[in-house]
Amino acid sequence: MATTGESGETPSRGKRADARRNQQALLTAAAKVFVASGVDAPIRAIAAEAGVGMGTIYRHFPTRSDLVIAVYRHQVEACAEAGPRLLAEAESPFEALRRWVDLFVDFLVTKHGLAHAMQSGGGGFDALHAYFLDRLVPVCGQLLDAAVESGEIRSDIRAFELMRGIGNLCVGRESDPDYDPRRLIALLLRGLRRSGAS
């Protein structure tokens, strides 16, 4: 029979929870480094950001493609979960949409290096892309619907179109440090505003 600690958790359950937290911290650190330096960033930079040894990263993610795929999935989930939270927190639905687009752009910067990191544009990447669409198009749609209902934006834009347009504006960011797509994306969002919306 398993014994419980003072917290009421069995030691193995507590250990699994710690391992999950450590892995999430690694993924968050890797995402931050990938956004700043691309998916070819040195593993030691990720280890330094996470405050762990390189051996810890390789224990969780034996290859770079394992790490990049895990970061991709982690960022998709973070974007998906952020939509409803931002709608509840932001001062307006349009502000929630704007803040969500910022997160989405961070994600896209990482996404554009994914196929190269996997050294293949084949089935693995295709499955991840389908996962990305299944999780994020409905969230973007929810944000757009809320902003339309509040009278802040026009109603003639679909979630997939907006995401595709933002994605196209982000192409080339990783190879040109002088190009910042956020300025153009801000103009795109401004173009959605209804006249008279504050």
- Helix count equals 9
Number of strands: 0
Structural class: mainly alpha
The CATH topology label of the domain at 64-192 is: Tetracycline Repressor, domain 2
Mean pLDDT: 84
Shape: globular
Radius of gyration: 19 Å
Strand content: under 5%
Residue ranges: pLDDT <50 for 5 or more in a row? 1-7
CATH 2nd-level architecture of the domain at 64-192:
Orthogonal Bundle
State the fourth-level CATH superfamily of the domain at 64-192. Answer: Tetracycline Repressor, domain 2
Roughly how much helix do the residues carry, as a percent range? over 70%
Q: What order do the helices and strands follow?
A: HHHHHHHHH
**Largest sheet properties:** none
Task: State the end-to-end CA separation.
Answer: 63 Å
CATH class of the domain at 64-192: Mainly Alpha
Describe the model.
The chain is mainly alpha-helical and 198 residues long. It has a domain at 64-192: Orthogonal Bundle (Tetracycline Repressor, domain 2). The protein contains 9 helices and no strands. The longest helix has 27 residues, at 11-37. It is globular and about 55 Å long. The N and C termini lie far apart (63 Å). Mean pLDDT is 84; it is low at 1-7. GO terms for molecular function: DNA-binding transcription factor activity; transcription cis-regulatory region binding. Residues 1-10 have a biased composition (Polar residues). Residues 1-20 are annotated as: Disordered.
